[in-house]
Amino acid sequence: MSAPAASEVAVGDSVTPFSRTVTQEQVHAYADASGDHNPIHLDPDFARSVGLPGTIAHGMLEMGILAEAIASWAGGSANLLSLSCRFSKPLLPGDTIICTGTVVSIDDSGVATLEVAASSDRGDRVLTNGRATLRPSR
Description:
The chain has helices spanning 24-34, 39-42, 44-49, 59-74, and strands spanning 18-21, 80-87, 96-106, 112-120, 125-134. By secondary structure, it is α+β, with helices and mostly antiparallel strands. The chain has a five-stranded antiparallel beta sheet, covered by helices on one side. The radius of gyration is 16 Å and the shape is elongated. It starts with 17 loop residues before the first strand and ends with a strand.
């Protein structure tokens, strides 16, 4: 995915859709890396006992994938200035997360603000109300 030059970014531009299938192995690796060993992420029986369909991916793992998508489009992680979103529905291991974004404004210094989101291939909106600011590469 090639990054747009700052002079080429315009309001209404869309981030190239970015998708990744999340596996249970990735969820376990994220639990180890983050120290978050909540059983809703690791134990299918426990997850079902609390009303979930099975284990779910960590919200911050999902947000990390969204950050990768936006940063790649912007020309690298140094160009992603901020990212926020709401965790709205669970992402299940085996689901593919699809990340999107649209430029909604550009300030006089070239900083672009995007509305960003992510959905699962099951059609659930897993990350909503997202906002990112970035400085596209020059």
